Structures are given as structure tokens and as C-alpha cells.
């Protein structure tokens, strides 16, 4: 599976700062020191509908992580998956009378278009669950043979008790885990499980549903969590720098994935930092495909909204905050974009070297994009009020905004 084309990232003078970011597993800040190659895995979409603002906000956050690392002159090894076979996808295809593979391909293609328009840097490896199955099956067999997994009516479940570190990502109590498991794709009420929280690794073939050769597991398809683990271990290995996604993935997805990896390798940690983006709401409720209260990137683009304004709307909110999408927040971004573009189109302006460092400092401090926007706003306001004599300043501002915030002026 291919990703989308990369936009060029301008090189800035000097060198950026190391990223200090909030780690869900420790509950506090962590300064990342990745070495010359930074490794990041961000969980991708289940392609049964178009890219909505919740998706866009999440991928914007981890695009900023990449840009901060690139500014420190590191290389970035970024991996993202596509869950191109799963219950929600099959249910949507059945509801609409579509072939599930055609639905997945269409929505994945639209996602690529949206990411390109928003100038999100693409992953080096963009891997679908279906193409990962040959690597998933051996991992499930290893877990079963090691006693970390068991069979129940043909399905294979992971035993959470096989990992002494289980619970170390989300730090939730058993009851909270049970409730979230039921809400987010688990089956805690299924009789016969050793622990209600045990997640499925391999689902035996169901009539009328797609399935693949599972060797000794029998025909079936993979569970959600093992999919990401197989892809991450294959392309990044243990102890990669950042596991990223929306805050709703901390449990069960990232918790279970970490436990799968610990049991498979005998090593800890799976990721050095677990970083989670907040949720975007509409009309008082979190944007959700199940609720249908969605604002789609593609719909806004069709209406003529500049993708740079969409991105500025996302950047105006701290990545960890929960916030609400309104016409007003988009209007503010449209106005900001117009002022910034007018400012950098002028022949000169006040010196901008300090601005570069202000933006760097803001982003290095837990991706504080709103503070970075305010720094640019101050430079623009000063130019509007007093003008300037530095002919190179508008170009410096334009390159800084492009390189660090992903907004083309």
C-alpha cells in the first residue's frame, strides 16, 4: 500500500530543540532523545468513511512531532497502518450493499487526498492489515505456543495476565477497563474467557465474512491490536520513540498492543512514550462515525475552504485538549491566514530571527502550537503597525511557518 506525496520541508537556520512531550504511561512530561533516527508509529484509519476533523487533529499532532524532529536535523522513520478489514468496515459495506474491498480502497484514496491537501508528511511505511496478515499469523502462533494465548471455540485470545506490565499504559482500574473494552470493540461478557479483558488475536472464519489462511490457527482474520504490533515490530522494532493516536486509543488498543509486544519479545517497553491527541466535538458531542456528527475535510475542500485554513484551525488548539468545531473557529483561521499571507507578501518587515526561536520553543514544549501561532501573530501585528526594513524577514517567516507548522503561505 502506498502513502501520499510529501511536501518539501524548508530548512531553517540553526537547529531546533529536543521535544518535551506528555507521556500517557508516566502521566507527565518526557524529553525525547531519539538519536539520529527518530521512530514513530501512529495508528491509522479504518476506512469506512471519509477523514473527519477528529482524524485531522490527530494526524496534525504527529505531523508536528515529525517537523520538530526534522528541525533538529534528525531523520524520521514514521509508520502508519490502515485497518482495511474489521467489523465496522464490513458492517458499513453490508449496510450500503457495497463490496468491502472497494469501500476500503475508495476511502483510503480519499484519506490520502485529504492528507496531501493538509500537507501532512507521509509515513515511510503505510501498511494495510490485509497485507500484514502473513506476518501476523506467526506472531499469534508464537503467543499461543508460549502459553500467552488460548483457543476458545476456534478463536484465539491473548491472556492479559501473561504480561506483568499490563495496565502500565492507561493505568485504569479493572472496572474502567471492562467498560471501555465493551465500548471499544472488545467482548468482556463472552463466556469461557480466562479474563474478561482478554482481547482476540485471531477470529476464526465466519460465514459470509472474508478470511485468510491462518496455518495452524485455521482460516480467519486478525484482531485489531496484533495488527499494529506486527507492523510496528517489523518496521521499527521494540523500544521505538513514540506510539501515537487519539486519546480513545490509550485503552484498549495501545494497552493491549504493548502487552502483545512484551509477551512476544520479553522486552519492555514497547514504546518509549505514549502520546495521545484530544477529541474534537460537534454540537456538544465527540465526533463519531457511529453518531454521524462529523465535519469532513473533503466536504470543506469541496466547499472551497483553503486547506491551510483548516490546518490553522487545528493548530489553534493544543493537541491534548478536547475542543469543539464551530463555524466561528474556522472563520478565525480564515482571517488569520489572510493576514499572514498579506504580511509575508510585503517587501520587508521587522527582523524575524527571534520569531524562529519562539516558534521552536513553543513546539518543543509539548507541541504548544497555539503559542506558536501567537508568536507569528505578534510579528504580523508589528509589521502592520510599524512596517520594517529587513527585506529577508517575510521570507524567514514564510519558511518558518511552512517548515514547523506545515502551512504554506
Descriptive account of the structure:
There is one protein chain. By secondary structure, the protein is of the alpha/beta class. The protein folds into two domains: 21-277, Rossmann fold, CATH 3.40.50; 297-405, Up-down Bundle (Four Helix Bundle (Hemerythrin (Met), subunit A)). 44% of the residues lie in helices and 15% in strands. The protein has helices at residues 53-71, 87-96, 100-117, 129-145, 174-183, 224-235, 250-265, 297-302, 307-315, 327-344, 353-364, 369-386, 393-405, and strands at 20-23, 28-31, 37-42, 75-82, 125-128, 149-152, 155-158, 200-204, 220-222, 240-246, 271-277, 280-282, 285-286, 323-324. The strands form four sheets. A five-stranded parallel β-sheet has the order 5-4-3-10-11, with helices on both faces. The radius of gyration is 22 Å and the shape is globular.
Morphology: globular
Spans with pLDDT under 50 lasting ≥5 residues? none
CATH fourth-tier homologous superfamily of the largest domain:
HUPs
User: How many distinct domains?
Assistant: 2
Amino acid at each position: 500500500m502506498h502513502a501520499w506525496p510529501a511536501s518539501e520541508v524548508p530548512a531553517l537556520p540553526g537547529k531546533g530543540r529536543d521535544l518535551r512531550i506528555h507521556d500517557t504511561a508516566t502521566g507527565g512530561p518526557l524529553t525525547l532523545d531519539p538519536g539520529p533516527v527518530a521512530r514513530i508509529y501512529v495508528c491509522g484509519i479504518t476506512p469506512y468513511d471519509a477523514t473527519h476533523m477528529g482524524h485531522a487533529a490527530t494526524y496534525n499532532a504527529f505531523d508536528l512531532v515529525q517537523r520538530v524532529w526534522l528541525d533538529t536535523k534528525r531523520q524520521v522513520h514514521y509508520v502508519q497502518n490502515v485497518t482495511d478489514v474489521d467489523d465496522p468496515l464490513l458492517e458499513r459495506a453490508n449496510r450500503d450493499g457495497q463490496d468491502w474491498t472497494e469501500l476500503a480502497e475508495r476511502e483510503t484514496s480519499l484519506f490520502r487526498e485529504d492528507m496531501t491537501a493538509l500537507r501532512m508528511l507521509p509515513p515511510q511505511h503505510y501498511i494495510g492489515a490485509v497485507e500484514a496478515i502473513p506476518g501476523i499469523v506467526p506472531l499469534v502462533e508464537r503467543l499461543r505456543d508460549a502459553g500467552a494465548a488460548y483457543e476458545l471455540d476456534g478463536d484465539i485470545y491473548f491472556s492479559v495476565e501473561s504480561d506483568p506490565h499490563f495496565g502500565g499504559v492507561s493505568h485504569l482500574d479493572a472496572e474502567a477497563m471492562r467498560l471501555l473494552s465493551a465500548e471499544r470493540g472488545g467482548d468482556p461478557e463472552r463466556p469461557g474467557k480466562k479474563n474478561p479483558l482478554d482481547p482476540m488475536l485471531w477470529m476464526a472464519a465466519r460465514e459470509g465474512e472474508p478470511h485468510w489462511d491462518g496455518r495452524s490457527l485455521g482460516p480467519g482474520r486478525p484482531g485489531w491490536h496484533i495488527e499494529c504490533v506486527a507492523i510496528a515490530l517489523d518496521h521499527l522494532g521494540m523500544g521505538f520513540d513514540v506510539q501515537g493516536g487519539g486519546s480513545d486509543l490509550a485503552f484498549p488498543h495501545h494497552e493491549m498492543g504493548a502487552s502483545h509486544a512484551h509477551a512476544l519479545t520479553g522486552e519492555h517497553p514497547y514504546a518509549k512514550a505514549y502520546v495521545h491527541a484530544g477529541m474534537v466535538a460537534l454540537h456538544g458531542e465527540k465526533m463519531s462515525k457511529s453518531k454521524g456528527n462529523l465535519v469532513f475535510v473533503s466536504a470543506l475542500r469541496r466547499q472551497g475552504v483553503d486547506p491551510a485554513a483548516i490546518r490553522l484551525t487545528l493548530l489553534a488548539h493544543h493537541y491534548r485538549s478536547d475542543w469543539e468545531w464551530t463555524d466561528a473557529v474556522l472563520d478565525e483561521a480564515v482571517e488569520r491566514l489572510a493576514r499572514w499571507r498579506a504580511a509575508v507578501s510585503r517587501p520587508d518587515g521587522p527582523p524575524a530571527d527571534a520569531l524562529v526561536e519562539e516558534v521552536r520553543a513553543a513546539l518543543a514544549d509539548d507541541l504548544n502550537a497555539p503559542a506558536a501561532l501567537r508568536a507569528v501573530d505578534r510579528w504580523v501585528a508589528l509589521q502592520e503597525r510599524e512596517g520594517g526594513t529587513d527585506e529577508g524577514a517575510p521570507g524567514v517567516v514564510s519558511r518558518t511557518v511552512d517548515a514547523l507548522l506545515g502551512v504554506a503561505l
